[in-house]
Amino acid sequence: MAGTTASLGLGLAGCVTNAPNPGVQAAVPPSVTSAVEDTPSGHYGPVSGEPFPVPGIKLAQIDPAYLRTEVSYASAEPPGTIVVDPAHHYLYFVEAGGKAMRYGVGVGREGFGWSGEATINSKQEWPDWYPPKEMLERQPDLKVKMAQLQSGIGMHGGSSNPLGARAMYLWQGKVDTLFRIHGTLEPWTIGKSVSSGCIRMINQDVIDLYQRTPVGTRVVVLGRAKVS
């Protein structure tokens, strides 16, 4: 199993920001060629059948380069692998035939990045959130939003939870990396490096990925020479 570029003991994966909506910025040019089809806006309408509301996304908040689309993707990784490219803010679900489903993601800001290989050890719908003590120390205002839950101090899953509608938990062997792939309350941060280390997705996208991804899925997070 590959090592990481950040110590797992730092408790960096807080998965929340205080980022205001800054509007749309230009995307980094993708390193792959998009398939010849438009991403239907229907991907990002309200989601029915959920225990909590999943409202439609205001697409003007997000650079269209980061919307879900199937792309041509040359990779040595077998189908079913997840590859995260933090430098370009993309997550790829590798498919057969040289294709991949590509999603825009938000990633960790400088000092909170992570790269290496991991496995999805578990998945949760509308997960509870347990911020590490280091995050509560950095952001004491969060403490008033916490409660005593079954596994410690945290926040119940729901429409106000920073983990959003789904979470997939990344482990290396028997060690929790403290990093997650999860939804977000801040879709305008997709395509940015603003989080406390986790890989955040639009809720509609993380629901889609969750359905494709069984427990045990291999995840490869590529290194990056520069954080934007």
Would you spell out the secondary-structure blueprint of this structure?
Elements: E1 69-72, E2 82-85, E3 90-94, E4 99-104, E5 107-108, E6 116-125, H1 133-138, E7 147-149, E8 152-154, E9 166-172, E10 175-182, E11 193-195, E12 199-200, H2 203-212, E13 218-221
Parallel strand pairs: 2-13, 5-11, 10-12
Antiparallel strand pairs: 1-4, 2-3, 3-4, 6-9, 6-13, 7-8, 9-10
How would you describe the overall organization of this protein?
By secondary structure, the chain is mainly beta. The chain has helices spanning 133-138, 203-212, and strands spanning 69-72, 82-85, 90-94, 99-104, 107-108, 116-125, 147-149, 152-154, 166-172, 175-182, 193-195, 199-200, 218-221. It folds into two domains: 46-127 and 168-223, L,D-transpeptidase catalytic domain-like (Beta Barrel), CATH 2.40.440; 128-162, no CATH class. Helices cover 7% and strands 27% of the residues. A hairpin with a 4-residue loop joins strand 2 (82-85) and strand 3. The strands form three sheets. The protein has a nine-stranded mixed β-sheet with strand order 1-4-3-2-13-6-9-10-12, with helices on one face.
